[in-house]
Amino acid sequence: MPTADELIALLRLEPHQIEGGYFRETYRSGERISGESLPDRYAGPRSMSTAIYYLLAPGTFSEMHRVRSDEIFHFYLGDPVEMLELFPDGSGRRTVLGRDIAGGECPQHVVPAGVWQGTRLIEGGSFALMGTTVSPGFSYEDYTSGAREELIRAYPGFTDLILKLTR
User: Fold this and answer.
1) What does the longest C-alpha to C-alpha distance in the chain come to?
2) The pTM of the whole model exceeds 0.90
3) CB count, 10 Å around CB of 42?
4) In 3D, which of 98, 142, 95 has the Cα closest to residue 117?
């Protein structure tokens, strides 16, 4: 199996300066959805869909954030990751993405639009290669970083994971 550094080179991944980890956009639909046809949470037109490769290595994590579109995660290879989702009603959920389906890991997982999310390698993991598909397509204006203290106040039962998934 390749190493994280080999995958970064082979897939031409770049550091994700905002979220953390490494990524490369692999698809952006040439077709667009007009702003008038989208829900009010969008400020204008969007691509129909986008897709990326996303890699986590030791010392990296996907910070707590939310986007305005549904995001589908696809687990490709490597070690399992844990994802924290925090819902508008004050509840939360921990999901493990990985290949051990019989052991309860998910190879694919959907994060609904507007849900806080963060992801990290399970302790001792060497890397995880995933992909995400976003529809309507991703735009940086749809991304909001989670503020540590605000998230802890709103979701005190998840303080330990919030501390690990925020800066």
Assistant:
1) 47
2) yes
3) 19
4) 95
Write down the pLDDT at residue 44: 94
Compute φ and ψ for 164, nearest 5 degrees. -80, -15
The mean pLDDT values, 10 residues at a time, for the chain of 167 residues are 95 96 98 95 96 97 97 98 97 97 98 98 96 96 97 97 97
CA distance 76 to 108: 9
d(CA 89, CA 17): 30
Expressed in percent and rounded to 5, the helix, strand and coil fractions of the chain are 15, 40, 40
For 99-120, letters b (16+ CB in 10 Å) and e give eeeeeebbeebebebebbbbbb
Token digits of residue 104: 């309860």
Query: Rounded CA gap, 132 and 164, in Å?
Result: 22
Q: Any residues with CB less than 8 A from the CB of 36 and at least 6 apart, and which?
A: none
Which pLDDT score, from 0 to 100, does residue 1 have? 85
